[in-house]
Amino acid sequence: MRSPITWSRALRALVVACGLIVVVLFVAANFVLVKVRLLGLNFEARLAWTVVVPAALAFAGGLLYARVRSADRAAQQSP
Amino acid sequence: MFVLARVVSVLCVIILGVVAAFDTQAERYTAGRVPAVFAERLQGHAAGDYASVIGVAHNAGDDLNSATRAVAYGADAIEIDVRSAGGELFASHDAPVPLLEDLVFRGPSLRDAWTVARLNDTVLLHLKQGSTAYLDQLRSFLASRALRRTIVQTNDRGTLLSLRRTMPTVKRLLLISNARELAALRGDAELMAAIDGVSVRDNVLTPAAQAWFEQRGLLTFAWVVNDERRMNQLVAEGIDGLITDRLDIMQLLGQGAKRVQT
Q1: pLDDT tens, B202-258?
Q2: Which of residues 96-135 of B touch A (CB under 8 A)?
């Protein structure tokens, strides 16, 4: 059964949508090939992806870390 | 609002997925098609009077790095695809995303492309549009930029007739992509009188067609010719200009040849 749509959920969905629109525009505006050097590696990649992909991975990692931490705390606080 | 936000989010994710999957196509809308100019070792097949032929770097003006490389290799002329977007003239093979030009399009302006291309005496402009406003923009752009020889090419009949009246000093080439357009030209006396020459797709330019153009005193350019043997054939038959992706061949063509000799 679906949970009811609250204002906070709606606001969160709106923020996510706005964030994704900004990402799409950023990707479109920076869709240019650049030479990337990383620890002795040289490769060509789109400037947009070199920013968006690590940022998305970092965001997902942070989100996962926060969930794990909150689950741990909940487990510690439970009797 | 919630549903709308969700729909927008899903659309954005789909767009990102499509852009990632169709990289080349996406690039065409954000920066125009990148010129395919390249240089390789000459195979030594080149023969004939290459020095009398104008070497044009195919679409090189659509990218400033490619244009600079083409000039360095001795191209006689840089080809620039001219488009109008948001009230400004751009150098781009493909049209940018409508209404989002300022946000997402990063191709060079015509002014920037011209700055590199004018390092040569000749510039070849490929007119991608034909509206009156577009031609007015182009006219005012060229009015303040004197060059020994400006060549324009377009497949639009009306544009060529208009240019004959409004910009008589500009050399006008009719772009011919297929046999049907070639046949149409043969029966169009008014158009024949309005043009200085033709710019013909390589596979349409038969020896008979080339001879026909020569008999009528029309300049003949061929595009896109990258094979040395084909170049030899066209040069032997009296071609006036070769539009090519190959930068190495520029040192044999036109002014490039003179530079190498001196």
Answers
A1: 999 999 999 999 999 999 999 999 988 898 889 888 899 999 998 888 877 876 555
A2: 97, 100, 103-104, 106
Q: Which residue has the tokens 């013909």?
A: B200
Any idea what the Cα angle at residue B29 is, between residues B124 and B144, rounded to 5°? 35
Sign of CA dihedral B160, B164, B168, B172: positive
CB atoms under 10 Å from CB of B243, counted, come to: 25
Angle, alpha carbons B175-B254-B248 (nearest 5°): 90
Separation between Cα atoms, residue B114 and residue B130, nearest integer Å = 20
Nearest Cα neighbor of B224 from B69, B55, B90 is B55
Six-digit token string for B140: 């005012």
- pTM (global) more than 0.80: no
Contact, B256 vs B50, CB < 8 A?
Answer: no
Across the interface, which of A9, A16, A27 has its CB nearest the CB of B16? A27
> Tens digit of pLDDT for each residue in B24-68?
888 877 766 677 767 676 666 666 677 788 999 999 999 898 999
The two tokens of residue B253 are 């063509």
- How many A×B Cβ pairs under 8 Å? 61
Beta bridge partners of A35: A44
β-pair type (B241-244, B54-57): parallel
**Which residues, other chains included, contact B159 with Cβ-Cβ below 8 Å and sequence gap of 6+?**
B127, B130, B135
Chain A touched by B186 (CB under 8 Å): no
For B105, which residue in chain A has the nearest alpha carbon? Answer: A29
* Residues B77-97, mean pLDDT to the nearest whole number: 88
List phi, psi (to 5°) of A36. -105, 135
- Structure tokens that stand for B44 in this block: 């030594």
